[in-house]
Design a protein that fits this description.
The complex is a heterotrimer. A two-stranded antiparallel sheet of chain A has the order 1-2. Chain A has 22 helices and two strands. By secondary structure, chain A is mainly α. Chain B starts with a helix and ends in a 13-residue tail after the last helix. The mean pLDDT of chain B is 87. Chain B is built from three helices and no strands. Chain C is mainly alpha-helical. Chain C has one domain. The chains are: A mainly alpha, B mainly alpha, C mainly alpha. At the A-B interface, α6, α7 and α10 of A face α2 and α3 of B.
């Protein structure tokens, strides 16, 4: 692999780390931090798009950190799924960085908003790109520490209360993850994911493997906010600044979903009937509880938080069905969801700045005063519910079609009903926030900390992307298709990481 | 020896969960400390217990002589301890701030954001 | 935070330079033997915290001259950039680079990017620990 490619795989991690370090070094200057925020994420986006195209061309790009070769050293691996996720991180990173110009006041900047923001992006990208299971744990922790601090930035009571639940449940999940890594290491004697996949095939005690698989499932289930481990999410996601909420809503739970996809395709594919059956039930219950929870809420951001949960269900459904088409649908869904959900959160922040409230009963009349914003809300809202021709329609369509193909009728029924209920929720927000008249006594515009101008470009940009994915979905679908192909044909990943010689010698030894 | 370690680890997990189920947020953090120690000990034990055999490669050799302890597991634990140190330092700051804001060391008084 | 203890203050004055020197020793020794940036950083931070206990926070901040956050930022930049020379030489990021110099008197000095990385870690640890502890201590007062 050429030197240039080597650098390219590491850059999505190095760039945000460097930007974070520099903005920490210039913590006194607000302007320098903002510039680093916008241009750092812009550079990240450019690099990650480039990485995506290179990965598309070369199948897998592998980099052995510090020239320590796999399976002994840590590797960074970019396959289609990882590259897609890294690009999405770049998109959401840039959108929130621009949005932050208007949303984040001097007080938050002084307490390290920008360094933490970059650190979070570095952690997320590291988790996507690493090929080493313990390194995945390390990146998870980097990401979590940054998210803990971002969550309590500002120090209001609700933030503290939400953060305690968030921190506790996520730490429990990390410890379960660590426990599972320990057991897996005891069983296989290696930490490289490709090597683990090779060696697990030789393990005779399949019961123990299933136990470890379950530990991973619970741990990543907590991170992904799947049923029944989701309680930390609606308790905390509506408390921080909107830019932070949007970043969390877009990326954090999806890292958990990504880890599920990685581990349950590459490593734990021995007992699919058992593990993926459980995933199927988790997926259905996650969809249902999420959407029903949202129906009971009357606060803009809480409704959106519950919808994250129900949408996570669709993604896990794609993995649980475990057919090529279902995985394509799952990956497509992740792409669509990250963009749409982050956008909805950003819009909720703008309505707050205009009307001074997140409560539906205190809001109203925005269609009359800001018709443009109403249209911009309709795009992601209807896409989330899955109306054609927007991105959500195709995402849902692929997954449901995959469900019909394997005759998982119950899952298909749940997915359809949840789609309808999502539409109900979105129409509820539309009616309350945009359509009905402004209730008397509310709607005082708060004095914004900054001019609101920079809130518009990210919202418009993400809405345009939603439309584009819907209208020109073919390349997106092809990317998802290729990533599904790679996920299911694990030998390609293993050979790319370990080299064909190593795999061959292992097979010799087995004989 | 493994049996003793298994019992100790099991006890640590149990104690950690018990502490985390209490209402006090200070005890919650103590529970988290115990949990991370339990996980570290588990890695240590799962990688195999070897006594008095440091993984040293003597000049001229390519591998350590005989059976030796696994250095990788210890490196993992060291990393996990460092990470745990950082996270717990944060958790202590968090409960301190939460105590200041809420004015009570009681989870039952922190239900405003629940649904 | 001040303990008002004459013994602690007198001992602290002697211990502070000793501990700081020891931390540098640990930092430099860390490549082949027990030691390294992390533990050295903890020792250095511990030394400053001891100073906080024996004197007070304001004089500890004066002693530091720079804000701990600056140390944190500088350390992060150094650590991240220490991997870059390898990338320019066409090797994977973080591949160690070694430079050897002859010293007058016959000795040999071996320097590496690993050491630079360790210095970065040292500064990050000192900066992070002191940021947290000084803020907590000031909140108590």
């Amino acid at each position: 692999m050429s030197a240039y490619m080597n650098a390219l795989v590491a850059l999505p991690v190095i760039l945000p780390l460097l930007a974070g370090a520099l903005s920490l070094a210039f913590w006194r200057s607000s302007a320098a931090q903002k510039l680093l925020g916008v241009f750092g994420t812009l550079a990240l986006l450019v690099v990650s798009v480039h990485l995506l195209f290179e990965t598309w061309e070369h199948d897998h790009i592998v980099m052995h950190m510090g020239s320590w070769h796999a399976p002994f050293g840590i590797v960074l691996v970019s396959d289609m799924l990882a590259a897609i996720m890294v690009v999405l991180t770049g998109i959401i990173g840039l959108a929130t960085a621009v949005y932050s110009l208007s949303d984040i006041g001097t007080r938050h900047e002084r307490f390290g908003y920008y360094p933490l923001f970059h650190l979070l992006l570095a952690g997320v990208n590291g988790a996507f790109l690493t090929g080493d299971i313990f390194n995945l744990y390390v990146w998870f922790e980097v990401m979590l520490v940054a998210s803990f601090a971002l969550l309590i930035l500002g120090g209001e009571r609700a933030q503290m209360e939400g953060a305690i639940k968030y921190v506790t449940l996520n730490l429990v999940s990390s410890m379960l993850f660590l426990t599972a890594i320990g057991l897996l290491y005891g069983l296989t004697g290696t930490l490289n994911m490709a090597d683990i996949a090779v060696r697990l095939a030789e393990v005779e005690d399949t019961g123990l493997v299933t136990v470890i698989a379950m530990l991973f499932m619970v741990s990543f289930g907590i991170k992904a906010a799947a049923f029944p481990f989701f309680f930390w999410l609606p308790a905390s996601y509506h408390t921080p600044k909107v830019a932070v909420s949007a970043l969390f809503a877009g990326m954090l739970t999806k890292v958990g979903v990504y880890a599920l996809y990685r581990v349950f395709t590459l490593i734990f594919n021995q007992d699919v009937d058992y593990t993926h059956e459980i995933l199927l039930w988790i997926a259905m219950l996650t969809m249902l509880t999420g959407v029903l929870g949202a129906a009971a809420q009357f606060e803009f951001r809480r409704i959106l938080s519950f919808h994250i949960i129900s949408q996570i269900g669709y993604m896990i459904l794609g993995l649980a069905l475990f057919t090529p088409l279902a995985i394509v649908g799952g990956v497509f869904y992740i792409m669509h969801h990250i963009i749409v959900k982050a956008n909805l959160f950003l819009i909720s922040g703008l309505t707050y700045q205009l009307k001074g409230s997140h409560e539906l009963r205190e809001l109203g009349g925005l269609y009359r005063s800001h018709p443009m914003l109403a249209v911009l809300f309709m795009v992601p809202a209807l896409s989330l519910a899955g109306l054609p021709p927007l991105s959500g329609f195709f995402a849902k369509f692929i997954i449901i079609r995959a469900g019909i193909e394997v005759e998982a009728w119950l899952a298909v029924a749940v997915a359809l009903v949840v789609g309808l209920l999502t539409l109900y929720s979105m129409v509820k927000i539309w009616n309350e926030v945009f359509w009905k008249a402004q209730p008397a006594g509310f709607g005082q515009t708060p004095t914004p900390v900054r001019p609101l101008f920079w809130m518009w470009p990210p919202i418009v940009g993400l809405a345009l992307m939603t439309v584009m994915i819907g209208l020109y979905g073919q390349p997106i679908f092809e990317m998802a298709e290729l990533s599904a192909e790679q996920l299911l044909d694990t030998s390609r990943y293993i050979e790319a990481v370990l080299g064909a010689d190593y795999v061959e010698s292992l097979q010799e030894m087995r004989r | 020896m493994e049996i003793v370690m298994a019992l100790v680890i099991g006890f640590l997990y149990a104690a950690a969960l018990y502490m985390m189920l209490r209402r006090s947020i200070v005890k919650l953090v103590i529970g988290l400390v115990l949990l991370s120690n339990a996980a570290n000990l588990l890695i240590f034990t799962a990688a195999g217990l070897v006594r008095g055999a440091p993984p040293l490669i003597y000049p001229g050799d390519l591998v350590p002589p005989g059976v030796s302890a696994d250095p990788l597991a210890q490196a993992l634990i060291l990393t996990a301890i460092v990470i745990g140190f950082g996270v717990l330092a944060f958790a202590v700051v968090l409960i301190h701030r939460a105590y200041e804001v809420v004015g009570a060391d009681d989870m039952d008084k922190m239900k405003d954001t629940d649904t | 935070m001040n303990m008002h203890s004459l013994i602690l203050r007198t001992a602290g004055n002697f211990l502070l330079p000793l501990l700081l020197l020891f931390s540098v020793f640990l930092l430099l020794r860390g490549h082949d033997e027990p030691g390294g940036g992390f533990i050295a950083g903890l020792v250095a931070a511990g030394a400053i915290v001891l100073y906080v206990f024996s004197m007070d926070i304001a004089s500890a901040r004066r002693l530091l001259r720079v804000d701990p956050r600056d140390l944190l930022g500088a350390g992060m930049v150094i650590a991240v950039l220490s991997g870059a020379p390898a990338a320019f030489l066409g090797q994977p990021y973080f591949t160690a680079q070694w430079w050897e110099f002859g010293l007058p008197g016959g000795g040999e000095l071996k320097l590496s990017t690993v050491l630079i990385f360790d210095i970065g870690v040292y500064l990050v640890v000192v900066g992070a620990v002191l940021t947290i502890i000084l803020n907590l201590a000031e909140a108590e007062d």
